[in-house]
Design goal:
Structural class: alpha+beta
Number of strands: 6
Shape: globular
Order of helices and strands: EHEHEEEHEH
Oligomer: single chain
Number of helices: 4
Largest sheet: 6 strands, mixed
Strand content: 25-35%
Strand order of the largest sheet: 2-5-4-3-1-6
Length: 151
DNA sequence: GCCAACGTTGGC
DNA sequence: GCCAACGTTGGC
């Protein structure tokens, strides 16, 4: 089982929205690396930090679990959707996504707090210019955050 | 709102 | 297949 960090802009979809929905389809990912993490590596039961980005303050606000393996993103076939992909066909979809299940909310662990800890220095989210919306989290980093920074 | 960093596109 | 131009992300 692996660990992940998944970004969402709270204006678009927040941890509170997921707490209400319980399960959501993680649609709209349009980056090949992020897609491949979902399609090729995510397994049922994998856990992920739910991260609020592009807000003040950005940070980890919850924990979720992969509840359904990757399947084609329906929004790519919808001409009216912002996520429409003209090159995709039903036989050869471009974009995939998993479903994630709400596990819990946590008191925010701000990005600024993550930066303070040497144990987390290699986290993808902390690297300069990082924009990837889904990133793997090392099990040791996961343990550090859940044991030391979340209470 | 600014802007650095990055991914993607498309002309050649 | 290179690479400049462009669009997007996301912290600040």
């Amino acid at each position: 089982m692996r660990y992940w960090l998944m970004k969402s802009e709270p204006d678009a979809y927040s941890i509170d929205a997921l707490a209400k929905d319980k399960v959501t389809a993680w649609t709209g990912v349009r980056n090949f690396q992020a897609r491949n993490f979902m399609k090729e590596q995510m397994a049922l039961g994998d856990q992920a930090f739910f991260y609020h980005s592009n807000c003040n303050p950005p940070g980890i606000v919850g924990i979720v679990e992969v509840a359904k393996l990757a399947y084609p993103d329906a929004t790519q076939f919808d001409k009216k959707s912002d996520y429409f992909e003209p090159k995709a066909t039903r036989d050869k979809p471009y974009w995939y996504h998993v479903d994630v299940k709400f596990l819990c909310k946590v008191p925010i662990v701000p990005l600024e707090e993550l930066r303070k800890h040497k144990a987390l220095a290699n986290m993808r989210i902390l690297q300069r210019g990082n924009r990837l919306s889904i990133t793997p989290v090392d099990p040791r980093e996961w343990a550090f955050i859940t044991e030391k920074l979340i209470r």
